[in-house]
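Dear Dr. K.,

Following up on our conversation at the group meeting, I've run the structure prediction for Probable M18 family aminopeptidase 2 from Pseudomonas benzopyrenica. I'm pasting the input sequence below exactly as I used it, so you can double-check it against your construct before we proceed with anything downstream. Let me know if the numbering doesn't match what you have in your notebook.
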Amino acid sequence: MRTDQIQGLIDFLSTSPTPFHATAALARRLEAAGYQRLDERESWSVQPGGRYYVTRNDSSLIAVRLGAQPLERGLRLVGAHTDSPCLKVKPQPELQRQGFWQLGVEVYGGMLMAPWFDRDLSLAGRVTYRAAGRVQSRLIDFRKPLAIIPNLAIHLNREANQGWAINAQNELPPILAQVPAGELRDFRALLAARLQQEHGIGDVEVLDFELSFYDVQPAALIGLDDDFIAAARLDNLLSCHAGLEALLAAEGDENAVLVCTDHEEVGSTSCCGADGPFLEQVLQRLLPTGDAFTRTLQRSLLISADNAHGVHPNYADKHDGNHGPKLNGGPVIKVNANQRYATSSETAAFFRDLCQREGVPVQSFVVRSDMGCGSTIGPITAGQLGVRTVDIGLPTFAMHSIRELAGSHDLGHLIKVLTAFYSSSELPL
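The predicted C-alpha coordinates came back this morning:
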Protein backbone atom coordinates (compact mmCIF):
# COMPACT_ATOMS: atom_id res chain seq x y z
CA MET A 1 0.00 0.00 0.00
CA ARG A 2 1.41 3.38 -1.03
CA THR A 3 0.36 6.04 1.45
CA ASP A 4 0.90 8.82 -1.10
CA GLN A 5 -1.70 7.22 -3.39
CA ILE A 6 -4.15 6.90 -0.49
CA GLN A 7 -3.60 10.50 0.56
CA GLY A 8 -4.05 11.64 -3.02
CA LEU A 9 -7.45 9.95 -3.14
CA ILE A 10 -8.45 11.41 0.24
CA ASP A 11 -7.46 14.90 -0.90
CA PHE A 12 -9.40 14.49 -4.16
CA LEU A 13 -12.52 13.32 -2.32
CA SER A 14 -12.35 16.22 0.13
CA THR A 15 -12.26 18.78 -2.69
CA SER A 16 -14.98 17.02 -4.73
CA PRO A 17 -18.33 17.14 -2.90
CA THR A 18 -20.17 17.44 -6.25
CA PRO A 19 -19.50 16.47 -9.89
CA PHE A 20 -18.78 20.15 -10.57
CA HIS A 21 -16.05 20.24 -7.95
CA ALA A 22 -14.67 16.86 -9.05
CA THR A 23 -14.38 18.07 -12.64
CA ALA A 24 -12.66 21.28 -11.51
CA ALA A 25 -10.21 19.26 -9.39
CA LEU A 26 -9.40 16.95 -12.32
CA ALA A 27 -8.88 19.97 -14.57
CA ARG A 28 -6.47 21.58 -12.10
CA ARG A 29 -4.36 18.42 -11.98
CA LEU A 30 -4.31 18.17 -15.76
CA GLU A 31 -3.30 21.80 -16.22
CA ALA A 32 -0.54 21.40 -13.67
CA ALA A 33 0.70 18.46 -15.77
CA GLY A 34 0.77 20.57 -18.94
CA TYR A 35 -2.60 19.69 -20.43
CA GLN A 36 -4.24 22.44 -22.49
CA ARG A 37 -7.94 23.21 -22.18
CA LEU A 38 -9.98 23.07 -25.39
CA ASP A 39 -13.17 25.10 -25.76
CA GLU A 40 -15.92 23.25 -27.65
CA ARG A 41 -17.19 26.57 -29.01
CA GLU A 42 -13.91 27.33 -30.75
CA SER A 43 -11.89 25.73 -33.52
CA TRP A 44 -9.28 23.24 -32.35
CA SER A 45 -5.68 22.92 -33.46
CA VAL A 46 -4.15 19.78 -31.96
CA GLN A 47 -0.73 18.29 -32.60
CA PRO A 48 0.84 14.84 -32.21
CA GLY A 49 2.34 14.63 -28.75
CA GLY A 50 -0.13 17.20 -27.44
CA ARG A 51 -1.97 17.01 -24.13
CA TYR A 52 -5.54 18.32 -24.07
CA TYR A 53 -8.75 18.24 -22.07
CA VAL A 54 -12.29 19.47 -22.56
CA THR A 55 -15.21 19.86 -20.14
CA ARG A 56 -18.94 20.05 -20.67
CA ASN A 57 -21.56 21.38 -18.24
CA ASP A 58 -18.71 21.88 -15.72
CA SER A 59 -19.44 18.30 -14.58
CA SER A 60 -17.92 16.04 -17.26
CA LEU A 61 -14.37 15.89 -18.57
CA ILE A 62 -12.42 14.17 -21.34
CA ALA A 63 -8.61 14.23 -21.27
CA VAL A 64 -6.56 13.19 -24.32
CA ARG A 65 -2.88 12.37 -24.57
CA LEU A 66 -1.92 12.29 -28.24
CA GLY A 67 1.13 10.14 -28.81
CA ALA A 68 3.61 10.00 -31.61
CA GLN A 69 1.88 6.91 -32.99
CA PRO A 70 -0.76 7.39 -35.72
CA LEU A 71 -4.27 7.72 -34.33
CA GLU A 72 -5.42 4.87 -36.56
CA ARG A 73 -3.41 2.50 -34.34
CA GLY A 74 -6.29 2.89 -31.90
CA LEU A 75 -7.07 4.54 -28.59
CA ARG A 76 -6.69 3.33 -25.04
CA LEU A 77 -9.76 4.65 -23.23
CA VAL A 78 -10.62 4.54 -19.52
CA GLY A 79 -14.15 5.60 -18.55
CA ALA A 80 -15.65 6.48 -15.16
CA HIS A 81 -18.34 8.81 -13.81
CA THR A 82 -18.26 11.89 -11.61
CA ASP A 83 -21.69 11.68 -9.93
CA SER A 84 -22.89 9.84 -6.82
CA PRO A 85 -26.33 9.36 -5.23
CA CYS A 86 -27.20 12.32 -3.03
CA LEU A 87 -29.87 14.78 -1.92
CA LYS A 88 -30.34 17.72 -4.28
CA VAL A 89 -32.01 20.97 -3.26
CA LYS A 90 -35.31 21.74 -4.98
CA PRO A 91 -35.72 25.02 -6.94
CA GLN A 92 -38.03 26.58 -4.32
CA PRO A 93 -36.86 24.70 -1.26
CA GLU A 94 -37.77 26.85 1.75
CA LEU A 95 -39.79 25.02 4.42
CA GLN A 96 -40.62 26.48 7.84
CA ARG A 97 -42.25 23.94 10.14
CA GLN A 98 -42.55 23.90 13.91
CA GLY A 99 -40.11 26.78 14.21
CA PHE A 100 -37.41 25.11 12.10
CA TRP A 101 -36.03 26.21 8.73
CA GLN A 102 -35.62 23.27 6.36
CA LEU A 103 -34.91 22.74 2.68
CA GLY A 104 -36.92 20.51 0.39
CA VAL A 105 -34.74 17.94 -1.36
CA GLU A 106 -34.98 15.51 -4.24
CA VAL A 107 -33.34 12.08 -4.17
CA TYR A 108 -30.71 11.78 -6.90
CA GLY A 109 -29.96 8.22 -7.97
CA GLY A 110 -30.56 4.94 -6.18
CA MET A 111 -29.26 5.92 -2.77
CA LEU A 112 -29.49 4.17 0.57
CA MET A 113 -31.58 6.68 2.53
CA ALA A 114 -31.19 5.48 6.12
CA PRO A 115 -27.47 6.35 6.48
CA TRP A 116 -28.26 10.02 5.73
CA PHE A 117 -29.94 10.46 9.10
CA ASP A 118 -27.95 11.93 12.02
CA ARG A 119 -25.05 13.06 9.81
CA ASP A 120 -23.34 16.45 9.79
CA LEU A 121 -24.24 17.81 6.35
CA SER A 122 -22.90 20.67 4.27
CA LEU A 123 -23.97 22.07 0.92
CA ALA A 124 -22.11 22.56 -2.37
CA GLY A 125 -22.69 22.95 -6.08
CA ARG A 126 -23.10 25.51 -8.85
CA VAL A 127 -24.90 28.85 -8.58
CA THR A 128 -25.93 30.94 -11.59
CA TYR A 129 -26.46 34.65 -10.99
CA ARG A 130 -26.61 38.10 -12.57
CA ALA A 131 -23.97 40.66 -11.61
CA ALA A 132 -23.01 43.86 -13.43
CA GLY A 133 -25.50 43.01 -16.17
CA ARG A 134 -23.98 39.59 -16.93
CA VAL A 135 -25.28 36.09 -16.21
CA GLN A 136 -22.52 33.77 -15.01
CA SER A 137 -21.90 30.80 -12.74
CA ARG A 138 -19.59 29.92 -9.86
CA LEU A 139 -19.06 26.87 -7.69
CA ILE A 140 -19.67 27.19 -3.98
CA ASP A 141 -18.98 24.93 -1.01
CA PHE A 142 -20.13 25.88 2.49
CA ARG A 143 -17.70 23.26 3.92
CA LYS A 144 -18.98 23.68 7.50
CA PRO A 145 -21.73 21.42 8.88
CA LEU A 146 -24.87 23.50 8.45
CA ALA A 147 -27.67 20.91 8.32
CA ILE A 148 -28.83 17.60 9.76
CA ILE A 149 -31.67 15.10 9.29
CA PRO A 150 -32.43 13.87 12.82
CA ASN A 151 -33.87 10.41 13.29
CA LEU A 152 -37.15 9.92 15.08
CA ALA A 153 -36.53 8.47 18.54
CA ILE A 154 -37.11 4.74 18.95
CA HIS A 155 -39.71 5.55 21.63
CA LEU A 156 -41.87 7.21 18.96
CA ASN A 157 -41.23 4.61 16.26
CA ARG A 158 -41.05 1.15 17.82
CA GLU A 159 -41.04 -0.47 14.36
CA ALA A 160 -37.89 1.29 13.22
CA ASN A 161 -35.71 -1.82 13.58
CA GLN A 162 -38.26 -4.07 11.91
CA GLY A 163 -37.99 -2.36 8.54
CA TRP A 164 -39.16 1.22 8.23
CA ALA A 165 -40.09 2.59 4.82
CA ILE A 166 -38.65 6.12 4.55
CA ASN A 167 -40.85 8.73 2.90
CA ALA A 168 -38.46 10.92 0.91
CA GLN A 169 -40.89 13.84 0.66
CA ASN A 170 -41.69 14.10 4.36
CA GLU A 171 -38.70 12.66 6.21
CA LEU A 172 -35.60 13.80 4.31
CA PRO A 173 -35.72 17.64 4.36
CA PRO A 174 -32.66 18.66 6.42
CA ILE A 175 -32.92 21.14 9.29
CA LEU A 176 -30.71 24.25 8.94
CA ALA A 177 -31.86 26.53 11.75
CA GLN A 178 -34.50 27.50 14.27
CA VAL A 179 -36.41 30.63 13.32
CA PRO A 180 -38.59 32.91 15.46
CA ALA A 181 -42.27 32.99 14.66
CA GLY A 182 -43.01 35.31 11.74
CA GLU A 183 -39.42 35.44 10.48
CA LEU A 184 -38.89 34.22 6.91
CA ARG A 185 -35.53 32.99 5.69
CA ASP A 186 -34.41 33.59 2.09
CA PHE A 187 -32.33 30.78 0.60
CA ARG A 188 -31.17 32.84 -2.36
CA ALA A 189 -29.93 35.55 0.01
CA LEU A 190 -27.89 32.84 1.76
CA LEU A 191 -26.35 31.85 -1.58
CA ALA A 192 -25.60 35.47 -2.46
CA ALA A 193 -23.79 35.86 0.85
CA ARG A 194 -21.77 32.73 0.13
CA LEU A 195 -20.75 34.07 -3.28
CA GLN A 196 -19.51 37.20 -1.55
CA GLN A 197 -17.62 35.23 1.07
CA GLU A 198 -16.10 32.60 -1.22
CA HIS A 199 -15.51 34.60 -4.41
CA GLY A 200 -15.72 38.26 -3.38
CA ILE A 201 -18.68 38.81 -5.69
CA GLY A 202 -21.18 41.34 -4.36
CA ASP A 203 -24.46 42.86 -5.49
CA VAL A 204 -25.74 39.71 -7.22
CA GLU A 205 -29.15 38.36 -8.09
CA VAL A 206 -29.17 34.58 -7.71
CA LEU A 207 -31.13 33.20 -10.64
CA ASP A 208 -30.77 29.44 -10.20
CA PHE A 209 -28.64 26.71 -8.67
CA GLU A 210 -27.72 23.02 -8.65
CA LEU A 211 -26.80 22.17 -5.08
CA SER A 212 -26.33 18.93 -3.16
CA PHE A 213 -25.98 18.04 0.49
CA TYR A 214 -22.97 15.97 1.52
CA ASP A 215 -21.46 14.48 4.67
CA VAL A 216 -18.60 16.58 6.06
CA GLN A 217 -16.92 13.58 7.74
CA PRO A 218 -13.61 13.29 5.89
CA ALA A 219 -12.40 10.18 4.12
CA ALA A 220 -10.20 8.02 6.32
CA LEU A 221 -7.87 5.05 6.33
CA ILE A 222 -9.42 2.69 8.87
CA GLY A 223 -9.11 -0.81 10.34
CA LEU A 224 -6.73 -2.38 12.83
CA ASP A 225 -4.14 -2.76 10.07
CA ASP A 226 -5.32 0.16 7.88
CA ASP A 227 -6.94 -2.29 5.47
CA PHE A 228 -9.80 -0.04 4.38
CA ILE A 229 -10.69 3.34 2.95
CA ALA A 230 -13.99 4.74 4.26
CA ALA A 231 -15.44 7.72 2.40
CA ALA A 232 -18.35 9.26 0.61
CA ARG A 233 -18.46 9.09 -3.19
CA LEU A 234 -15.99 6.22 -3.64
CA ASP A 235 -18.49 5.20 -6.30
CA ASN A 236 -17.13 6.44 -8.58
CA LEU A 237 -14.60 9.16 -7.78
CA LEU A 238 -12.18 6.39 -6.82
CA SER A 239 -12.09 5.29 -10.47
CA CYS A 240 -11.83 8.89 -11.74
CA HIS A 241 -8.83 9.43 -9.47
CA ALA A 242 -7.17 6.14 -10.44
CA GLY A 243 -7.72 6.87 -14.13
CA LEU A 244 -6.14 10.31 -13.81
CA GLU A 245 -3.16 8.99 -11.85
CA ALA A 246 -2.61 6.33 -14.49
CA LEU A 247 -2.87 8.80 -17.37
CA LEU A 248 -0.32 11.14 -15.82
CA ALA A 249 2.06 8.29 -14.94
CA ALA A 250 1.85 6.43 -18.27
CA GLU A 251 4.86 6.29 -20.54
CA GLY A 252 5.17 5.60 -24.26
CA ASP A 253 3.75 7.10 -27.42
CA GLU A 254 0.26 5.64 -27.46
CA ASN A 255 -2.94 7.66 -27.77
CA ALA A 256 -4.74 7.66 -24.43
CA VAL A 257 -8.11 9.02 -23.33
CA LEU A 258 -9.72 9.48 -19.89
CA VAL A 259 -13.50 9.96 -19.88
CA CYS A 260 -15.26 11.10 -16.68
CA THR A 261 -18.94 11.80 -17.32
CA ASP A 262 -21.86 12.95 -15.20
CA HIS A 263 -25.36 11.49 -14.67
CA GLU A 264 -24.45 7.78 -14.65
CA GLU A 265 -26.49 7.25 -11.49
CA VAL A 266 -29.65 8.39 -13.29
CA GLY A 267 -29.15 6.67 -16.63
CA SER A 268 -26.46 8.81 -18.34
CA THR A 269 -28.92 10.40 -20.80
CA SER A 270 -27.86 14.04 -20.94
CA CYS A 271 -25.69 16.37 -23.01
CA CYS A 272 -22.72 15.46 -20.82
CA GLY A 273 -23.57 11.87 -19.89
CA ALA A 274 -22.29 8.64 -21.43
CA ASP A 275 -25.61 8.19 -23.25
CA GLY A 276 -25.20 11.62 -24.86
CA PRO A 277 -22.98 12.83 -27.70
CA PHE A 278 -20.08 14.22 -25.66
CA LEU A 279 -17.44 11.53 -26.24
CA GLU A 280 -18.37 10.89 -29.86
CA GLN A 281 -18.32 14.59 -30.71
CA VAL A 282 -14.90 15.06 -29.10
CA LEU A 283 -13.49 12.03 -30.93
CA GLN A 284 -14.94 13.24 -34.24
CA ARG A 285 -12.92 16.43 -33.85
CA LEU A 286 -9.71 14.54 -33.05
CA LEU A 287 -9.79 11.45 -35.25
CA PRO A 288 -9.62 11.00 -39.04
CA THR A 289 -12.99 11.19 -40.78
CA GLY A 290 -14.91 8.65 -42.85
CA ASP A 291 -14.00 4.98 -42.68
CA ALA A 292 -10.74 5.90 -40.89
CA PHE A 293 -12.87 6.93 -37.89
CA THR A 294 -14.43 3.46 -37.73
CA ARG A 295 -11.09 1.73 -38.26
CA THR A 296 -9.60 3.70 -35.38
CA LEU A 297 -12.42 2.78 -33.01
CA GLN A 298 -12.23 -0.86 -34.02
CA ARG A 299 -8.57 -0.86 -33.05
CA SER A 300 -9.40 0.75 -29.70
CA LEU A 301 -10.40 -0.61 -26.28
CA LEU A 302 -12.37 0.94 -23.43
CA ILE A 303 -11.88 -0.05 -19.81
CA SER A 304 -15.07 1.00 -18.04
CA ALA A 305 -14.02 1.40 -14.40
CA ASP A 306 -16.83 1.44 -11.85
CA ASN A 307 -16.99 -0.05 -8.38
CA ALA A 308 -17.94 -3.71 -7.92
CA HIS A 309 -19.83 -5.44 -5.10
CA GLY A 310 -17.43 -7.10 -2.66
CA VAL A 311 -18.71 -10.16 -0.81
CA HIS A 312 -19.92 -8.99 2.62
CA PRO A 313 -19.16 -11.38 5.53
CA ASN A 314 -22.62 -10.75 7.02
CA TYR A 315 -24.45 -11.20 3.71
CA ALA A 316 -22.36 -13.72 1.78
CA ASP A 317 -25.50 -15.40 0.41
CA LYS A 318 -26.16 -12.27 -1.70
CA HIS A 319 -23.34 -13.38 -4.02
CA ASP A 320 -22.97 -16.29 -6.41
CA GLY A 321 -20.87 -18.86 -4.60
CA ASN A 322 -18.16 -18.85 -7.25
CA HIS A 323 -18.07 -15.09 -7.78
CA GLY A 324 -17.55 -13.30 -4.47
CA PRO A 325 -14.86 -10.62 -4.93
CA LYS A 326 -12.82 -9.84 -1.84
CA LEU A 327 -11.72 -6.39 -0.72
CA ASN A 328 -7.98 -6.03 -1.34
CA GLY A 329 -8.19 -8.94 -3.77
CA GLY A 330 -7.58 -6.77 -6.83
CA PRO A 331 -9.74 -5.37 -9.63
CA VAL A 332 -12.90 -7.25 -10.57
CA ILE A 333 -13.93 -8.20 -14.12
CA LYS A 334 -17.71 -7.77 -14.29
CA VAL A 335 -19.72 -10.08 -16.55
CA ASN A 336 -23.44 -10.22 -17.35
CA ALA A 337 -25.08 -12.40 -19.99
CA ASN A 338 -27.81 -9.78 -20.53
CA GLN A 339 -25.29 -7.05 -21.39
CA ARG A 340 -25.69 -5.00 -18.25
CA TYR A 341 -21.90 -5.09 -18.45
CA ALA A 342 -20.14 -4.87 -21.83
CA THR A 343 -17.41 -7.43 -21.08
CA SER A 344 -16.78 -10.12 -23.69
CA SER A 345 -14.57 -13.19 -23.40
CA GLU A 346 -11.93 -11.42 -25.51
CA THR A 347 -11.90 -8.18 -23.54
CA ALA A 348 -11.95 -10.07 -20.23
CA ALA A 349 -9.01 -12.18 -21.39
CA PHE A 350 -7.09 -9.06 -22.39
CA PHE A 351 -7.59 -7.46 -18.97
CA ARG A 352 -6.85 -10.68 -17.11
CA ASP A 353 -3.63 -11.15 -19.10
CA LEU A 354 -2.64 -7.53 -18.46
CA CYS A 355 -3.15 -7.98 -14.70
CA GLN A 356 -1.11 -11.19 -14.70
CA ARG A 357 1.75 -9.56 -16.59
CA GLU A 358 1.76 -6.66 -14.10
CA GLY A 359 1.55 -8.91 -11.03
CA VAL A 360 -1.87 -7.50 -10.12
CA PRO A 361 -4.44 -9.89 -8.61
CA VAL A 362 -7.70 -10.05 -10.55
CA GLN A 363 -11.19 -11.32 -9.67
CA SER A 364 -14.56 -11.93 -11.37
CA PHE A 365 -18.13 -10.92 -10.55
CA VAL A 366 -21.39 -12.33 -11.88
CA VAL A 367 -24.64 -11.46 -10.11
CA ARG A 368 -26.75 -14.28 -8.67
CA SER A 369 -29.09 -15.70 -11.31
CA ASP A 370 -32.12 -14.88 -9.15
CA MET A 371 -31.19 -11.21 -8.67
CA GLY A 372 -31.18 -8.15 -10.92
CA CYS A 373 -27.94 -6.59 -12.06
CA GLY A 374 -26.79 -2.97 -12.04
CA SER A 375 -25.06 -1.41 -15.02
CA THR A 376 -22.34 1.05 -15.96
CA ILE A 377 -21.25 3.40 -18.71
CA GLY A 378 -19.64 0.38 -20.40
CA PRO A 379 -22.64 -0.94 -22.38
CA ILE A 380 -23.78 2.63 -23.11
CA THR A 381 -20.44 3.70 -24.57
CA ALA A 382 -20.03 0.42 -26.46
CA GLY A 383 -23.50 0.92 -27.90
CA GLN A 384 -22.75 4.52 -28.89
CA LEU A 385 -19.34 3.99 -30.48
CA GLY A 386 -19.05 0.28 -31.23
CA VAL A 387 -15.80 0.18 -29.24
CA ARG A 388 -14.74 -3.06 -27.55
CA THR A 389 -15.18 -2.76 -23.82
CA VAL A 390 -14.36 -4.51 -20.57
CA ASP A 391 -16.21 -3.57 -17.37
CA ILE A 392 -14.06 -3.69 -14.25
CA GLY A 393 -14.00 -2.09 -10.81
CA LEU A 394 -12.70 -2.31 -7.28
CA PRO A 395 -14.75 -4.30 -4.75
CA THR A 396 -16.72 -2.10 -2.37
CA PHE A 397 -19.10 -2.40 0.58
CA ALA A 398 -22.15 -0.17 1.19
CA MET A 399 -22.32 1.05 -2.40
CA HIS A 400 -24.65 4.07 -2.72
CA SER A 401 -24.51 4.76 1.01
CA ILE A 402 -23.45 8.16 2.33
CA ARG A 403 -20.19 6.41 3.37
CA GLU A 404 -18.73 3.51 1.42
CA LEU A 405 -15.83 1.13 2.09
CA ALA A 406 -13.05 -0.12 -0.19
CA GLY A 407 -9.76 -1.94 0.30
CA SER A 408 -6.74 0.29 0.83
CA HIS A 409 -4.44 -2.01 -1.19
CA ASP A 410 -6.78 -2.14 -4.18
CA LEU A 411 -6.22 1.49 -5.17
CA GLY A 412 -2.59 0.75 -5.97
CA HIS A 413 -3.59 -2.36 -7.92
CA LEU A 414 -5.99 -0.36 -10.09
CA ILE A 415 -3.56 2.49 -10.75
CA LYS A 416 -0.84 0.02 -11.69
CA VAL A 417 -2.90 -1.92 -14.23
CA LEU A 418 -4.46 1.21 -15.78
CA THR A 419 -0.99 2.77 -16.12
CA ALA A 420 0.19 -0.36 -17.91
CA PHE A 421 -2.88 -0.20 -20.17
CA TYR A 422 -2.18 3.40 -21.14
CA SER A 423 1.50 2.57 -21.71
CA SER A 424 1.02 -0.67 -23.66
CA SER A 425 2.33 -0.60 -27.22
CA GLU A 426 -0.06 -3.29 -28.40
CA LEU A 427 -3.75 -4.13 -27.99
CA PRO A 428 -3.59 -7.85 -28.89
CA LEU A 429 -7.24 -8.22 -29.90
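Two things stood out to me. The first strand starts at residue 36 and ends at 37. The first helix runs from residue 3 to 14.

Best regards,
J.T.
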